[in-house]
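Side project, low priority. Logging it here so it doesn't get lost.
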Amino acid sequence: MAELTLYHASPSRSSIVLWMLEEVGQPYDVKLIKLSEGDNLKPGYLAINPMGKVPALDHRGTVITEVAAICAYLADEFPQAKLNVPTGTPQRGVYLKWLFFGPGTLEPAVIDRAAPRKEQARRGMLPYGDFDTTMDVVAKAVAKGLWLMGEQFTAADVVIGSNVRWGMHFKMLPERKEFVDYATRIGARPAAQRAEAKDKQLSAG
C-alpha cells in the first residue's frame, strides 16, 4: 500500500492532482469517488473531506484538501522532483502567487464568464477584477518563457496549466496564441500524458 492516496473523481478538478502525482513520481493509490452516485456525500467520504469535494490526498494519515494546497504540499514534500521554489529563494513569492492565482483568480473569472450573473457585479467585489485583465495577465506570464518560472517547470504550472487547458477545451477561455502554445508544451510532458491516459481508464471503469 502506497503512502499517498488520492480520493479522485474522474475526470474533475482532482485530475489536476492526478497529474501532479505523476510529475512527483512517487507511488500512490487512487480511491475512485463516483460523483454520479453521490459517493462524495456519503458519511465515509465526508469524514475525509466534510466539504464533500474532491480531491483529497491522504499522506501517511494526514489529509490535505484543495487543489493548490495539495500541489504545494507535494512539491515541498518531495523536493527531488524540483517542482517547487525553495523557501529562502526570492522567486518563491512569485511561485506562490501563481499557485494561488489559479483557484483564487483565474478559475472564478472563467466560471463567472460561463455562468453569467443576472446583474453585473462591481469590479471590486470580484476576486479577479475583470475577465479581460485576468486573461491578459496570464497570457503575458505564459509567453515570457517556457514556464511560469522561466526554464523551471513547477507545481504552479500544474495548477495554471490545468486551468488553461480545461478552459480552452470547454470554450470558456479564449484560444489566444499564448494559451495554445502553453497548452501544447504541457501536453508534451510525459507525466501529463500518463495522467490523461490513467484518467481515461478510470472513467471507463
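Brief comment: Strands lie at 4-8, 28-32, 56-59, 62-65.
Revisit when time allows.
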